[in-house]
Specification:
The complex is a heterodimer of chains A (232) and B (698). Chain A is α/β, with parallel strands linked by helices. Chain A is 44% helix and 21% strand. Chain B has 698 residues and is α+β, with helices and mostly antiparallel strands. Chain B has 4 domains: 3-59 and 255-379, Beta-Lactamase (2-Layer Sandwich), CATH 3.30.450; 70-251, Immunoglobulin-like, CATH 2.60.40; 423-523, Orthogonal Bundle (Helix Hairpins), CATH 1.10.287; 528-697, Heat Shock Protein 90 (2-Layer Sandwich). Classes of the chains: A alpha/beta (232), B alpha+beta (698).
Chain lengths: 232, 698
């Protein structure tokens, strides 16, 4: 069964390129230039399997955010990825708070984008088929990493991580004690970002763990080198 | 030359004000002097006219008198007839002397009311007493010439010391005159005081010291005292004195004084003298305040203003009631000026000739006191006012200069602070609302600083804006290349070009990411923890990590603060800043040369700092302060980042963003950063304040 991807992008060349690429991979891609077009279509034909949304849409400066909010109201599990030229911290935080699964800047390669799309779809599938996928679980102390659902629990409580954050934690926890440089973490997370953004991701991940366990201190900084997972 | 000095010099020009005032006073003084001469001449003429109209009041010389006059001084106290002259007026009255051989007779006169006092001193080695039976005897014979030409003769011959009474010899015109006297023998002779009727001597006096030899008749030689009248003959042997002739008697006449007094004016002294210079009358006008109310400096300045150096020195013109300088009387109507210190004296003479034998002179003098009072007080006021004005002006100018300097310094300091590379211009400059030139300057500074701030802000946001704008076309290219590479998988000719284009896109993506890093950092600063960190341990750990990253350069860590040094910092931000600085140092260091990290105290000992030193090209001198600005890069790289590199320097570009991030982090620490050239290299210093506590940061 072919998966349907909704691409809401007001830049026609980018939309065309992504459409061509995903179609070549067997996806059905519906391209919308405006929020109203997308909502209208979804109203008639139902929600897609995954939505890739640009933040700024035509004359709506934050039309993508509004669309994300409206889609999340309709479905809690619909994978949503923001693809935008805006790379400010504020925009990223805003997008993720609205329930997006990831926030990407437009200079990401198609390969990295496809990896994300596939991963998110796989997670949806895994969530729908929960119970049969328990064998692909990585346990690190109180942490369990489900590679299929791309979910992480700490003290058996789910840690709400974005896809990028999941991949970073996974990369760190896979080999405890081994220092991962920022570049390695970027590669693992399929992103091309600056060092500071990785630092920000790490801060955000720590905060999410500490929200569950105030004593959480397993992600250690190796000054000048990167980060490592500490078993203790 | 500083502003204060300039204004002080300008204020000296104000000294011209008192100089001009002095010139004015000098002119006034000359006018007043001419006026004074005229006034004195008028007074003199008036007095002379009055005297000429009253010739009888002038004590004219009697035609029968000749020789030196006997001048009688007006006594102030009653003279006691005791032979001592201590009650005579001092300085003692002028004397007449008649010397002969070893003998001498002197005469001094004094009057009081209607009495004439004579003091006669005899110097002789013989007794002057008239002793009965002696062969020799002496007497003093006085003759007076009255206003009525009557002659009165007084013969004085006493037998011993003591008071005596003499009777005037009979005269056809005078019935009876008695006089008192006192004879006192002294070591040198005798001192005789006489009290006589002044009226008998108004016109002349004759005094003779006569010595007689007494001879007796033959019949009575056995008893010489039996019958003196018939048997004794007095024969004059010698005489000393006027020898019967009359000397004129002169004295100050109160009547003339009363006559002249109404004519006299303030500050004028009018003197009447006879042809021999004897003072016959002297009238003084009301005195004026003689002194300049001031001190010696004022007198000196005033004397200089008067220009009286060439004038003759003033001296008293009368001595013992006689004119000291008889030549004065020849200066008829010629005003003559004398100097006495800063004062000047004016002298004028008017002759009064009654007949061929009677010549008098009126001498008028007037001190410069009037001028001094008029001009001097003006001069004092002028000097005082000028001085006060000068002091006020100088103080005013100095205050104004101080105020100006303070304002300029305030503006300068504020502008200098705002011009510093790490300062954000707040739009607040002093004097910006002032309406004067400094206000205009402040407004111009404001415009300049606003433009600079706008440019800085623009540069700061330029990278972020550019990255935002470039991402979309980059995404178009990249996605197109991705699609193209899938379509041309088997086309060996096109694949390398697509690969190169993809690599270019990747590098461009890195550049765009770096360009937005500063903005992202600023937005995430509040996410970082402020912690008390052992800085030496942190730096040691970092040095080791850097050494692994860049094995070609020895990384040295020097700790000058001890192993236990702890400080409140944002450790991850500090590391991020240090990463940039080390990265920069490696890029510009000469191959294989060491990179040195030094933890030390700043010179002011209020901050601590981390110095990163590398050998290599120096920074351009003018850019030491701007190197931390956004998009500023100016050193030549040491051939590290070649296109074929695959390490961390691959495709590395220096857009001047790394050090800008360092400056952002330092500002967040409330610290500073600077770069300076040292021997054979460059030192980047990251300074942090000492003594910060968690509470201070909230």
């Amino acid at each position: 069964m072919q998966r349907i991807i909704a691409l809401v992008e007001d830049e026609p060349t980018i939309a065309a390129n992504y459409q061509a690429s995903f179609q070549r991979l067997g996806f059905i891609v519906n391209v919308f230039a405006t929020r109203s077009q997308a909502l209208s279509y979804f109203g008639e034909r139902g929600l897609p399997d995954l939505a890739i949304i640009d933040v700024g849409l035509a004359d709506e400066y934050e039309g993508g955010f509004d669309l994300c909010r409206q889609l999340r109201e309709q479905s809690a599990t619909l994978p949503i990825i923001f693809l935008t030229a805006r790379d400010s911290e504020l925009d990223e935080v805003s997008g993720l708070r609205l329930g997006a699964d990831d926030y990407l800047t437009k200079d990401i390669s198609l390969t990295q984008m496809v990896a994300r799309v596939k991963a998110l779809l796989r997670r949806v599938d895994a969530l729908e088929q929960r119970g049969n996928q328990d064998n692909d679980v990585l346990t690190r102390g109180e942490m369990e990493i489900n590679n299929l659902t791309m979910t992480i629990t700490w003290h058996q409580q789910a840690v709400e991580l974005t896809l990028t954050e999941f991949w970073i934690v996974h990369a760190l926890a896979k080999y405890p004690g081994q220092v991962k440089s920022r570049q390695q973490l970027m590669d693992a997370a399929n992103v091309v970002q600056d060092d500071n953004t990785i630092t920000t991701h790490i801060k955000r991940i720590r905060r999410k763990f500490k929200h569950i366990d105030a004593d959480f201190d397993h992600i250690r900084t190796a000054y000048g080198m990167g980060y490592r997972w500490s078993a203790q | 030359m500083k502003l204060k000095t300039q204004l002080l010099l300008i204020s000296i020009v104000m000294l011209g004000l008192p100089w001009a005032g002095c010139q004015s006073i000098k002119e006034i003084t000359q006018v007043l002097a001419t006026s004074q001469e005229q006034m004195l001449a008028n007074s003199l003429n008036s007095a002379a006219l009055v005297l000429k109209q009253q010739p009888s009041m002038l004590n004219q010389r009697h035609p029968n008198t000749f020789g030196d006059a006997v001048y009688a001084v007006k006594a102030k106290d009653q003279v006691q007839l005791d032979g001592y002259d201590n009650d005579w007026q001092q300085p003692i009255a002028p004397e007449l002397n008649w010397p002969f051989m070893n003998a001498n007779m002197s005469l001094a006169a004094q009057y009081q009311g209607d009495d004439l006092f004579l003091k006669i001193q005899l110097i002789t080695d013989k007794s002057a007493f008239n002793l009965p039976g002696a062969n020799e005897w002496q007497q003093l014979q006085l003759k007076g010439l009255s206003d009525h030409n009557a002659t009165t003769v007084y013969d004085i011959h006493v037998a011993g010391d003591g008071q005596f009474i003499i009777d005037a010899s009979d005269s056809p015109n005078v019935s009876h005159h008695r006089a008192k006297g006192y004879w006192r023998t002294t070591a040198w002779g005798a001192s005789i005081e006489l009290k006589l009727p002044l009226s008998d001597f108004n016109r002349g006096l004759s005094l003779d010291w006569q010595r007689f030899e007494r001879t007796f008749s033959k019949a009575n030689q056995a008893h010489p005292l039996a019958d003196v009248e018939d048997s004794v003959t007095n024969q004059l042997r010698s005489s000393l004195g006027t020898l019967g002739g009359f000397r004129p008697v002169l004295r100050q006449d109160d009547e003339i004084t009363r006559l002249l007094t109404p004519l006299i004016q303030q500050g004028i002294q009018l003197s009447l003298v006879d042809q021999q210079g004897w003072l016959l009358s002297q009238v003084n006008g009301p005195r004026v305040n003689r002194d300049i109310p001031g001190f010696w400096l004022m007198e000196k300045i005033y004397a200089w203003l008067q220009q009286n150096d060439a004038l003759p020195q003033w001296r008293e013109i009368f001595e013992r009631n006689q004119l000291v300088y008889p030549e004065f009387v020849s200066q008829f109507k010629q005003p003559t000026w004398f100097k006495q210190g800063y004062r000047s004296h004016l002298l004028m003479v008017e002759p009064i000739k009654l007949d061929q034998h009677s010549q008098y002179y009126l001498i008028a003098t007037q001190g410069g006191e009037v001028l001094i009072r008029l001009a001097g007080s003006s001069f004092n006021r002028l000097l005082f006012i000028s001085l006060i004005a000068f002091i006020i002006l100088v103080l005013g100018l100095l205050s104004y200069a101080t105020w100006l300097t303070w304002r300029v310094n305030r503006l300068s300091a504020s502008a200098a602070t705002q011009m510093q590379q790490d300062a954000n211009y707040s739009g607040e400059l002093p004097l910006i609302k002032s309406q004067d030139e400094l206000g205009e300057l402040a407004r111009n500074f404001n415009q300049l600083l606003t433009l600079k701030q706008q440019q800085t802000d623009y540069l700061s946001s330029l990278a972020s804006k550019l990255s935002h704008e470039l991402r979309t076309p980059l995404a178009v290219i990249r996605s197109s290349l991705d699609n193209l590479s899938h379509l041309q998988q088997n086309n060996t000719e096109q694949t390398p070009f697509i690969t190169r284009a993809s690599d270019g896109c990747h590098r461009l993506s890195q550049i765009i990411t770096a360009m937005s890093e500063a903005k992202r950092l600023e937005q995430s600063l509040h996410d970082f923890d402020y912690q008390l960190v052992n800085v030496p341990e942190l730096l040691k750990e970092l040095s080791q990590a850097y050494q692994q990253t860049w094995p070609d350069h020895p990384i040295e860590f020097i700790n000058q603060l001890g192993p236990e040094f702890e400080a409140w910092i944002y450790p991850e931000l500090l590391v991020q800043a240090l990463d940039k600085v080390i990265d920069n140092a490696i890029d510009f260091a000469k191959a294989t040369t060491p990179i040195t990290l030094t933890l030390t105290l700043c010179k002011n000992e209020l901050n601590w700092q981390i110095d990163v030193y590398n050998q290599g090209d120096a920074l351009p001198q003018q850019h030491e302060l701007t190197i931390f600005d956004s998009l500023v890069s100016m050193r030549a790289q040491q051939n590290k980042a070649l296109p074929q590199d695959t390490g961390p320097n691959q495709g590395k570009s220096h857009l001047g963003l790394g050090l800008y991030i360092v400056s952002i982090i330092q500002k967040h620490h409330q610290g500073t950063c600077r770069a300076q050239n040292v021997d054979q290299g460059v030192v980047f210093s990251l300074c942090y304040p000492l003594g910060q506590t968690n509470t201070q940061r909230g």
